[in-house]
Design brief:
Function: Part of the energy-coupling factor (ECF) transporter complex CbiMNOQ involved in cobalt import.
Family: Belongs to the CbiM family.
Keywords: Cell membrane, Cobalamin biosynthesis, Cobalt, Cobalt transport, Ion transport, Membrane, Transmembrane, Transmembrane helix, Transport
Order of helices and strands: HHEEHHHHHH
Strand order of the largest sheet: 1-2
Subcellular location: Cell membrane
Largest sheet: 2 strands, antiparallel
Protein name: Cobalt transport protein CbiM
Length: 239
């Protein structure tokens, strides 16, 4: 991640674009409703998008035709839920392809499916599950960001293995090869991203407590890092 321009066979590129498109279209409707219903959330939406853009622009060369980097999607998934991140992540990838030659237009669908669809859903799923167990907020945020990052690269490894099966081991052999190479750089990056996401969330708790309460991240009148808050929030963006 990001898979480079022209690296995937055309049929694979088209298939991943078709797989990502429904999530992005649904997310566009969800984001539009959220901003119209709560205009005050626009700044926080922009901050979540900027966080994703900045982190995912920091790249380390990895498997041929790809690279390793943080994703930044866990924070937005916790705040606004995965459909909104499908839009913000895809827009981020589009601008990076056009302005930074990072990723590409032909591989936009594949990159969006891994980073803007699977990553946020994995991170949000971990967050919801752990909040229900009573784990403090910041622990949940750390593991959500970690899961969003690492799951993105698991999907990218699958995408590359499907496109370029190993001559001897086929899909399984290629998946082991790509996944093993990614793990060297991506596990430390996922840990670092989790810690940074916790730091940003702590700043948001201090500066945007009312908005975080409305979104359900903080319980009404409860402690910021406590375990008793709702897992997802009744008034956040509708999934």
């Amino acid at each position: 991640m990001h898979i480079a321009e022209g690296y995937l066979p055309p049929i694979h590129a088209a298939a991943w674009a078709a797989a990502a498109a429904p999530f992005v279209l649904h997310g566009t409707r969800v984001l539009t409703r959220e901003v119209r219903a709560n205009p005050e959330s626009t700044l926080l939406v922009g901050a979540a998008g900027a966080f994703t853009f900045v982190l995912s622009a920091l790249k380390i060369p990895s498997v041929t035709g790809s690279c390793s980097h943080p994703t930044g999607t866990g924070l937005g998934a916790v705040l606004f839920r995965p459909p909104v991140m499908a839009v913000l992540g895809t827009v981020t990838l589009l601008f990076q392809a056009l302005l930074l030659a990072h990723g590409g237009l032909t591989t936009l669908g594949a990159n969006a499916f891994s980073m803007a669809v699977v990553g946020p859903w994995a991170g949000y799923g971990v967050y919801r599950l752990l909040r229900r167990t009573g784990l403090p907020l910041m622990g949940c945020v750390f593991l959500a960001a970690f899961a969003a990052d690492l799951s993105t690269y698991c999907v990218t490894a699958v995408q590359l293995a499907l496109a370029f099966p190993d001559p001897a081991g086929g899909f399984a052999g290629a998946l082991a090869k790509f996944g093993g190479i990614f793990a060297v750089t991506q596990i430390p990056l996922a840990v670092s991203e989790g810690l940074l996401t916790v730091l940003v969330m702590r700043l948001l708790v201090q500066s945007s407590r009312g908005e975080l309460t409305r979104l359900g991240v903080l319980p009404p009148g409860g402690p910021a890092g406590g375990s008793g808050g709702p897992a997802g929030g009744a008034k956040g963006a509708v999934v």
